[in-house]
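Here is an idea for our session: we take a single protein and study its fold together. Which protein we use is up to you, so please pick one and set it down. Once you have written the record down, we can walk along the chain together:
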Amino acid sequence: MPSQDDPAHDEQRGATPTAERDAPVDTPFAKPADEVCSALEVDPAQGLSDDEARRRLERHGPNELREARTKSPWRILLDQFMSTVILVLVAAGVVAVATARWEEAIAIAAVVLVNAGIGFTTEWRAVRAMNALRVLARPDVRVRRGGRERSVDESKLVPGDIVVLESGDRVPADLRLLEANGVRVDEASLTGESVAVTKRVDAVEADAPLAERTSMTYRGTLIGDGSGEGVVTATGMATELGRISELAESAEAQVTPLQRRLDHLGRRLAVLTIAIAVLVAVLGLVVGQDPRRMIETAIALGVAAIPEGLPIVATIALARGMWLLARRNALVDRLPAVETLGATQVIFTDKTGTLTENRMTLTRLVTEPGEHRLDEAEGTIDGEAYGDDPGDLDDVVRRLLETGALCTNAEASGVAPAGRDDGEEPAQEASQQGDPTELALLRGAAMVGIRRGELLDQQPEEREVAFDAELMLMATFHRRDGAYRVAVKGAPGAVLERCDTVATSDGDRALGDEERSGWLERSEKMAGEGLRVLGIATKAADDVDEEPYEGLTLLGLVGLHDPPRQNVPWAVQECRDAGIAVILATGDQAATARAIAFHTGIVDDEQADVMHGAELEDPGAASEEARQHVLSTRVFARVDPEQKLRLVETFQADGRVVAMTGDGVNDAPALKKADIGVAMGRRGTDAAKQVADMILQDDAFETIVGAIHQGRVIFGNIRKSVLFMLCTNLAEVLAVAVGSVIAAFAALPLPLLPLQILYLNVLTDVFPALALAVGRGGPEVMNRPPRPRSESILTSDHWRAIVASSLVIAASVLAALAIATFGLGLPRLEAITVSFLTLAFGKLWFTFVLATPGTHPFDNPVVRNPYVWGALALCIPLLLAAVYLPGLADVLSTARPGAAGWGLLLGFSVVPALAGLALRARQHATRTSS
């Protein structure tokens, strides 16, 4: 037997042999960065060529971890027989075999196998669907290949690739750092150390433990702060995370609360069924009935009460809903999230890219000499086009635009002034990477011929001080004339607080408190117009390590416009109609937040109350008055990630089901805490996507609303299916139980035989129930409040409706049987066929009673559901075949009922549907009049 360390042992487990997993460079953390690049045969400035990347991908394989072994098809098939309802059927089949009732035994076996086949197919397709969704959600990575930065699928990374890292990124492979600008990494997933590790380029000792290898970043860890570059030293199972994953155990598959409730319901039905069957059998024997007939009755009852479609309805509905959401740009790879969506009561949304188009444009410049308006489409400032010559531009405006272009880590190659055609390649979206605000600053500068690349050639960047969410500031240091030029941008209040002077046409002069207050008023006025406002400042420094935010000179304010998405006001109104509170929680200023909230319909008052994030107290320590103030507020400004978490906790403590949007690494706690965490697919960090329940591929608010709509539809469909199965199956139980009692005192046959019940349950239970489970729903689902989170599938009102409907259906079946026997004088088999078909067609017509209460009886989602009509088109010919097809009719013990029998059974089969539709019409009229 091979040892645990033997490569053969790895192969037996399906693992990659150790030799193949070895990284191309040993101890890269202990070698100088240039030596590592030399060993990997890559020039950091150029990266690998596409051809070389393909060759290495073939040699090393995709950058993927081996997934935990999924359930085998055989295991999935076996699980189909473990359901309580199926076990009851199997027991009934055993009884049928023991009493030599071979037809019933064969039919029961057929039902069990059909159910297992449907369940197996559904679960197997769901597993494949989940895997496909994970592939769709796989992140891209910024790499340098052939001298150009581009986005590459994470799985296509190879040793030697140069990877660009930003704050919030999940490290895609093991990297030897080549550049580190304030990089701090959360390595808790590998080392268990909760404190972020500061990374440097310098090599460390060869025997340094994993937690002290500061020159490396490892796959699966998170970049908390800073930016940098690294060369890939190991991919896939050769990474440190890959080695750890070999020891991990497979997690059990997730079972949704809805599925648990359905299984619990199935067990209760099974117990009830057995009790009724035993009771009826005992009563029959007591009154002197034939024991063989009572066994037949007990089998019939056992079969009648079992809703065979119950185990698979939830899986089909949820899996199909998952695919529909994916088609609408909402990726959900956890089934419980689909279920929870329908109960969402509060949506916390940020502004940029979700409510707005995330197409920032620089529209306003405010300097001490004056105010200027920019038109990016025309390429003009105050109506004048400057082209490539900023020489005529006001000096303060030029300095402001230069500083804004320098204080960024965005890239916008090929940006040219609008309206100019000099043979340069025009800017393409693919050539612009970075924060939309910073890209807008680069485009605004490019309109007057100021390009970041040319500035950096003259003033190379020596240091970047990453954006600090607490200070609301960012800075870069640039070498110029033996000293350093410091470029600063940030929130207007934060910038003004640190400025001692202000730039004017006549030079810099002192900035007093009164003038500083005037600048703040200008900032608030611009924000009130819906602009995002930034302060821009600069200073000269002698040392690159100097404190960046002291002794600054204010250059001015910039205003950027990001228009609301066209469909957002409609989507917000849709939420309000559905009883869902939409709340804006943004890092922007209060005036900007209020303006956006008003323009999108979140608030109706232009002067609506806005709460500052700093006002939020710990939910556990807040007074009742403070808590109610938070619960009634719809706009929160200057909110940081920790305050987002407090908001979620406050609303959850009030019993609300909360959805929270987020995109940053620091949003992860709030996303995880929320009932539905929603990450942005385009601008969201890997950290946010990993903890989210749903990823928006288009970052659009209306996609969230569409997902909630679909969640409500799914729950409603499952409820309809369960109602249908329970109503019709309980009607069968009542008909057989009451019929057996009547038969003891009158010359009346049993209304249904075991094989007939099995035939009906396969046809008129499963297919209509599945059709109801995959309906598309209608707009009316968003015209009522969300259901309470604790609400079960069936409420007390539903149980009353089930009992009432079952009584009407059972009474119709028994009445048809009695009239056929005593009124029409039909023979036993023909009379039983009348009751059999009365129930069969009654089930089919009853489908239309299950539309959402309050909708029009003849114009509702059930009537418009093509799958319902398809189920009817399939079931009706098969019911006719049960009577008229030789062989099948003999097995089912049916006989042709004749014209009188057909008139009788069709008349009584529509009674339950007419009664239900009449009640629905009354409800609709009441709803319309109110």
Observations:
- The longest helix spans residues 701-745.
- Confidence is low (pLDDT under 50) at residues 1-22, 133-137, 247-254, 415-430.
